[in-house]
Amino acid sequence: MMSVTCPKCGAPNSDTAMGCTTCGHSFVITLPGNPAWSQSVGSFAPPPPLQEPGEAKTALIASIVAFFCCGPLAAPYAIIKALAAKRIIAANPGTPGETKANIALGISALSLLSWIFWGIHLLSARL
């Protein structure tokens, strides 16, 4: 087992110690630019990467399907999934997938509007 020497008092400590057992000096290091990532001197494993919420990809696929084939049926589902993805992303800053969720919202809204205008056009043509 290795030991860590305290930079303040020079006392030996175990390599898993979070601080000096003699003087109480902290061994925790916070990396600049990422205050959420602080590790003990003994272990320097980076944090796991943030995962993109599945809702973002599902919303994007559903919005594309809604736009090209079954608009008024699939568009609300795509909007709900995109909003769920945006809530997950807002709760966990730095999570990838925000662009997909925004694109899905835009395509879904465009799909709904185009189907509404198409329906109005068809109704006015019959009158």
Task: Explain what this protein looks like in three dimensions.
It is a single chain. The protein is mostly helical and 127 residues long. It has two domains: 1-47, no CATH class; 54-126. Helices cover 53% and strands 9% of the residues. It is built from two helices and four strands; from the N terminus they run ββββαα. The strands form two sheets. The chain has a two-stranded antiparallel sheet. Strands 3-4 form a two-stranded antiparallel ribbon. A hairpin with a 7-residue loop joins β3 (28-30) and β4 (38-40). α1 (54-91) packs across α2. The radius of gyration is 26 Å and the shape is rod-shaped. It starts with a strand and ends with a helix. Mean pLDDT is 75; it is low at 37-44.
The average pLDDT value, as a whole number, equals: 75
Residue runs with pLDDT of under 50 for 5 or more positions: 37-44
**Amount of helix:** 40-55%
Q: Which geometry do the CA atoms define?
A: rod-shaped
Order of helices and strands: EEEEHH
N-end to C-end Cα span? 87 Å
Strand composition percent: 5-15%
Question: Total helix count?
Answer: 2
Question: How is the largest sheet built, in terms of strand order?
Answer: 1-2
Quaternary state of the chains: single chain
Instruction: Sketch the major β-sheet.
Output: 2 strands, antiparallel
Structurally, the number of domains stands at 2
Radius of gyration: 26 Å
- Could you tell me the number of beta strands? 4
Structural class: mainly alpha
Keywords: Membrane, Transmembrane, Transmembrane helix
Protein name: Zinc ribbon domain-containing protein
Transmembrane segments: 59-80, 101-120
Organism: Pendulispora albinea
